Amino acid sequence: MIPVPLLDIRNLTVEFATRRGTVKAVKAIDISVGKGETVAIVGESGSGKSVTSYAVVRILDRAGKVAEGSITFSGMDLVSAPESQMRDLRGREISMIFQNPRAALNPIRKVGKQIEDVLLEHVQATRATAREKAIEALEKVKIARPQERYDAYPFELSGGMCQRVVIALALACQPQLLIADEPTTGLDVTTQKAVMDLIVELTRERGMSTILITHDLGLAAAYCDKVVVMEKGVVVETAAAGEIFRNPQHPYTRKLMKATPRIGMSLRDLLPDAPKAQPAQAAVPRSAPVPGAEPLMRVENLVKEYPRPATGSLLAKLMGKAEPEKPAFRAVDGISFTVARGETLGLVGESGCGKSTTSMMITRLIDPSAGRIIFDGMDIGAIPAKQFAASPHRRRIQMVFQDPTDSLNPRFTAERAIVDPILRMGSISGRDALRARCEELARLVGLPVELIDRFPHQLSGGQKARVGIARAIALDPDLVILDEPTAALDVSVQAVVLNLLEELKGRLGMSYLFVSHDLNVVRLLCDRVIVMRTGAIVEQGTAEEVLGDPKAEYTKELLTAIPHPPL
Amino acid sequence: MNDMTKVEPPPALRFEAPPSTSIWAHARHIVAENPVTGLAFGLFALIVLAAILGPSLVPYDPLASNTNAALQGPSARHWFGTDQLGRDIFSRVIVATRLDFTIAVCSVALVFAMGGLAGVMAGFYGGWVDKLVGRIADTIMAFPLFVLAMGIVAALGNSVTNIVIATAIINFPLYARVARAEANVRREAGFVQAARLSGNSDWRLLLTQIVPNIMPIMAVQMSLTMGYAILNAAGLSFIGLGVRPPTPEWGIMVAEGASFIVSGEWWIAFFPGLALMTAVFCFNLLGDGVRDLVDPQRRN
Predict the structure, then answer these.
(1) Which of A158, A449, A458, B10 lies at a CB distance of 3.0 to 4.6 Å from A454, suitable for a disulfide?
(2) Distances from the Cα of A42 to the Cα of A204, A226, A241, A492, angstroms
(3) pTM, 2 dp
């Protein structure tokens, strides 16, 4: 007997009306979700995975519409259902969790009240019992001290806490189907693990079905029964989670799996083409640091303090009765390390650990409170950040930013962005010479030369990342700080960019400080690793030592939190 | 443009990075989507035309009185009728466009320079610059704006230049606050940090990174305050400040005609009032159109 699926998507096509005609975002896909089943929809950006889920709950934006096919939810046709019926269904029968938990919550309403709103809307509680039930819901998502948290506003909670509240909201009415759209993107690994464990536990407990939309194959495989792989609006493969890893059928699935960093791989392995296809490039050796030589940079007891906001009333302060000053908040608390010439040093930690503050101090965008940054024999930490723009050392320390879109001026062409440092600090002048240098840099980072006249919004994510890298290496710096340079990119693009960075390092003789929270990527790229927590260094050593045989409890915790595909 | 057709991004990325459309194609699309915007742009062109060519187009000298033809209603000879001195109201309304339009453009340009610069610096530097600009804006906002404008003109002297200055000053808080907010969110943007790393000085950051990126929103602000500036200038001359008779100006003409409404000669005040209303209406609609035109999200 074949059980009737809870959700059955048949031959679904979703179209978007754009200025350049109709675009099919989803093309004739079939997906079915059984009762109690956990299904992952995996794909890169533009694959149509989110659009599919929006079509199910009918929240496509105005330009989009279901052109063909049917969506049946426990015997009911969702495509033709009247809006009033859909409204009743959303939240009560089908719930959604979105990517950014903070954006999904009303910032000026207490979280407890927001849960009450949902309960009252769907007649799950009366005014008298609402508070009690809301606290119960908070308890279920394992929020400590739910009585107190009931009165908290979203901004008072951490990202992981907010996501728990969103889950509490989504599950408040005991829905039959939960759709989680990238629920853990932007959360730390340990938080990701806690949130995913919670979702899976709660849904199993209640016999709910779940659709997990993600770009992370590892996450999908670790938590789901079935995996649906989508590419450009088409389902290319559907299989059981274990099966898809053991025996991937479709070339795209294989490419995606290959590009996902895992233990025991090298950087080359991430690329779809066989390494022997490019012998010249494959021969580029991993440039090892020269032992014994004077390090390029030595950081000694670096501290960054931020004053805490003064407490006490204005009146008390005016009368000179202000409370004694609290000790300043130490974002970075006396860290010391070295970066050798030609070395890639990984700086790892969760959000708030001080790794970004550290990199900002090293790039001399902010001033350290104490400590020294000795760069090539000179204490650059002593030069105020405001004057560093004029220092001859400015050109030797450059940075590749996390978000390639945010780090490019929307009004500058790619060429203008790349030559900006040369114009300010370089020795090349004259339009033709600059153009030639820009084309050379574009070739170096693999950006098609025809594209350098384009504006950022006319480039893809990977192309923008290349522009950012070209700008950083334009002046042949000695040290490049890579601030999660691939966090905003799809895995297949990430694979290419990581290889590019490794190749450039060898060719131009640079050192990297690689700031990341993705330990799998750090393992591939870095020679040595520093693990930071609350402003201090927890552990440091070679990448194999720290990530292969961690000593500190915290490092172990980080490592176990990474979802591993079942192999 | 050739490059655009030669190098197509891979299909998966095309959704995210559409090839650019020319500004004209975009403008056509905006107008087709919202015909009112087209109307606003049309009216704007008409106003500019009247301001430039007005004096050489009109059938009568706007200052020449003809007591034989005083207080005539609209007719084929005098489309908008004549006033108490027999001057042709149509001619006066058209000729007045130049003065009113110039006052509005000058005051908006002035307040854009002052308020925009102060606001951008306040948002970029924060600290005492921010406090100073904020308090100046608060002080101006604390007065009823029209009364403040009256006071400024009365204190500085009764001239067109001072009307321009007064109108600019009362709009200062609007510009300073918008520019401050926009500069403040971009201060920590990645591209600004990247430009810092490229060795740009603070002034260069302001001028090449921040200002070009807040121009669109300032353009919308300018078109919206244009209407307000015209209204303000007309209001001041209505109560006898700034422009003086017999100069044709919408505000004075309404004021002069107001006393004749009770005796039935409605056209003297009506037509200049209509011109004023049309101009304000046009600039307000233009604001919506400009926003549609410069908002990148409307490009898809």
Answers:
(1) A458
(2) 21, 11, 11, 13
(3) 0.79
